[in-house]
Each structure stands twice: as structure tokens, then as C-alpha cells.
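Please annotate the following for my students:
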Amino acid sequence: MAWVLGRIEALRAKGDSLGVERFTIPAARLEQLQVGQHSTVG
């Protein structure tokens, strides 16, 4: 996750909005997976 966020920041600094968009979707999905790991069932 840290690597993905680092890529987003680097792309944002370069002004690469398409690159930012491409990495934002996987970042959101990784965040969902991480949240799911911490949830408790029953």
C-alpha cells in the first residue's frame, strides 16, 4: 500500500493525472482488502 501511495504522489508531482487515476483505483481496492482483514466475524 505504501508503494502505491508513493507512486500516486510521484505521478501527481509530475502532473500525470492519467497515471494518478490508474493507481487510485488499485489503492482503493487495497484499502478495502486491508479493512476486511481487521474485521471480526460473529
